[in-house]
User: What shape does this take?
Amino acid sequence: MSIEKNLDKLQLSRRTVLKAGAAGMAAGAAPMIIPSTAHAHMNEPTGSSVTLGFNVPQSGPYADEGADELRAYELAVEHLNGGGDGGMMGTFSSKALQGDGILGRKVEYVTGDTQTKPDAARASARSMIEKDGAVMITGGSSSGVAVAVQALCQEAGIIFMAGLTHSNDTTGKDKKANGFRHFFNSYMSGAALAPILAANYGTDRTAYHLTADYNWGYTTEEAVRTSTEAIGWKTAAAVKTPLSQTDFSSYIAPVQASGADVLVLNHYGANMVNSLTSAVQFGLRNAQANGKNFEIVVPLYSRLMAKGAGENVKGIFGSTNWHWSLSDEGSKAFVKSFGTKYGFPPSQAAHTCYVQTLLYADACQRAGSHNPCAVAEALEGFEFDGLGNGPTLYRAEDHQCFKDVLVVKGKENPDNEFDLLEIVEVTPAAQVTYDASIFGGDLGTCNAG
Amino acid sequence: MFGLSRGDAVLWLFVLLLVLAAPILLNPFPESSALAQFNAGYPDLMQRFLIFGIFAVGFNILFGLTGYLSFGHAAFLGAGSYAGVWMLKLLTINVLPAIIISTLVAGLFSLLIGYISLRRSGIYFSILTLAFAQMSFALAASVLTPITGGETGLQTALNDPRIFDAANTTGNIPAPSLFGMTMGDSHQVAVGDWLWTFNVGYYLCAFVMMIAFYIAIRIFRSPFGMMLKAIKSNNERLSYTGINPRPYTLAAFVISGMYAGLAGGLMVAMDPLAGAERMQWTASGEVVLMTILGGVGTLIGPVFGAGLIKYFENIFSKINESLLQTWFSFLPDGVSDFVVTVIYPFVGKGWHLTLGLVFMLVVIFLPGGLVGGINGLYKRIFNKSNQAN
Assistant: This one.
């Protein structure tokens, strides 16, 4: 039935007009059903922009790291879109990025709060994928979250570029074809720390571990334990502490009576700040045990933690992924542009997140697509330099980066409030490389949604 | 209809209509407009609306009818979640056994906790349930790590046995499905600038929710429900008439525990991961808020309350500072900065603040919750038009 016909016959009853109107409306706005096969891959960008999802802890024990990660992401987006001084894009060995976004599309982003809870992190990531059409999810400051979100991205057909996650599991037993990690892991910390600890504290030591009670804590405890026992140390006890714990005095009190002369704090973020402060208040640093000075070791260190713990970190050994005082060109460029924008140097969390964003953008550019399978192929076995840790390899077998690891020590006489850690040794990548199969797990196949 | 009175049948059909049309109703703003930020019609959030709706409706059977305020209902949600993930790991990736078993497990668990907690009433009952829930949380987060995955959470894995499923050769963890229909599958329909997503998992939730809602109505209107209301209005008098109220309260407790377990089972069916924080006291407090916001003792109130809280949690929390700046960029520089500074604490990670204000306003001005408010408004208009006639 057409409107003209009705008009010709001049049968303009209310009913026919309504009918004709409805038909006209239906023709004008015909619903278009989009089957899921219409896209080459999940959330394929079609307009003039591409959306990335930055999922970082904005509350909880790792909120400081999360805030710094977000700053780094904003900086990376600015640089990718051609703003600012370009940062590490100038020093990066791959020159695929042009400063015009990714594949000519302007980079936009959405943010979410992981709350350092796997549940909340997944809800936040799902809404980014389903509502905002994010084509890649990155961020996080906890391995529990990283493993959970990585599994979600695998299922949804999205690339996951892990933020700060240090557990062996992320690229070990829980590795996924769609997930990639630039940050180093517990095994590497143990391998890098052990020789330094042997040289400074001797080979006849007994260690007491306090361990954050989730997957990162477990693998870190195991790595440090294995590597220190290999140099002759003994382990007195290993006690697990809840992630939400803020008062560690009841955990510190039994340490001295245990016969241990070294306390290993497998804690990160606010956990470490609180447990270390508590240990110092109990006088552990001035104590004597087994005729030796009592020592404290923090396997995973960061400047933000050192800042939180203040005076207490002086002389304490640990390992870190990256430190702003490194003097290579990439690090200098990054510290400069971060410092110009925010007024203070970046943390290792900021560094790894910035680098991951550039690596993803570069991989898309080289692959000529956002398709997770193409991006994964571009990243697998990719060798690059100029991003702050020297020559680096993205290993194809487990999607883990292999690069130099820094062993650091709390500085005795800091020059300023940011100069809290000094680099004791740069452990070469070869010394911390392991066989990809030792942690089990299976990558599976890439999923494009 | 199906043993419902006319009014209840209309209410049920109204809810059915709302639930079916939700993918359209919740996306009122065109995709390209700035207001699209406030659209809630995406599968994850819509599923949450319904799942927490079920949770709150079940909680209301206990709190709304008997007046027993449980501060530990999240424990049953968590127990159901863990049971559900284990079924997905051990039996089959089909969600049906997971949903049924999680309801039963939560029922047994609530029978145990209810049997002990219901020896006391009032504030002592609340504290007992809170204590049990915190114990469950602590157990799940550390002691029972081999079963619950601790703070890492419990997930499906590639090498799970899944004894009823054919051997998995895809190299990927199978996604939860119902007889071949994958929960994550969606059909998108674009009409003009609007985009509607019709998701398989959502409609499974809708189906379960409508059954759960129907059962809740029947319980409210049954002699058993009347007995529960009698317990609320005067427990002592009931005892003096020779009736022992404890079996009734225990039954209500177990039923609401099973609702929580059902919600937990649906949660893992939509996203196969269970974390210990689902059992934390904040999660238990949340369902109390949902019920009070929507209207205690009303049938539909808790569903609205659940929707409101989940909307705040997922939509308001995602408004960040740079987004605010683009919204107010039309204002002169100083003014826009000022406006952003004023608004920012209430959105993003400050969404709790806004929710708190809304909660205060509701409690002060609408003591009967949202539904109580709507009813009051309806009566006012009705009375006025009556007087005019």
User: Anything to note?
Assistant: Chain A touches chain B through 46 residues (CB under 8 Å). The longest helix of chain A spans residues 348-367. Chain A is about 40% helix and 20% strand. Confidence is low (pLDDT under 50) at residues 1-29 of chain A.
